[in-house]
Design a protein that fits this description.
It comes from Desulfosporosinus lacus DSM 15449. This protein is an all-beta fold. It is built from no helices and 10 strands.
């Protein structure tokens, strides 16, 4: 499947961070439009975690390549580490919600 056919779409994402320093956060947002990478595409993303334990963390990066779903559409993987706040940081990884494109 040619994932460059329509890169003009975004993905919503929502998943938890790791449990560190006695708590975790949630990462919720919407990716950028698709960015061509060879015969696939990726998306950029960034934002601020949910407010938990009296603070937030910033996060951001570039998704993995498009992963085709058997029923159509595709998803992307997210993985990274938040900024250092309140003497700690959190790791995160997850996938976004499928695109219909």
């Amino acid at each position: 499947m040619d994932y460059n056919a329509d890169i003009f779409h975004v993905h919503k994402y929502c998943f938890p961070t790791s449990f560190d320093h006695g708590h975790s956060h949630r990462i919720i947002g919407v990716s950028s439009l698709g960015i061509r990478r060879g015969n696939t595409h990726v998306h950029c993303y960034h934002g601020v975690t949910t407010l938990d334990n009296g603070h937030v963390h910033n996060y951001g990066g570039e998704t993995g390549p498009a992963l085709h779903l058997p029923g159509g559409g595709h998803i992307h993987c997210y993985r990274g580490i938040t900024t250092f706040e309140d003497r700690h940081r959190h790791a995160y990884e997850g996938t976004d919600f499928p695109s219909c494109s």
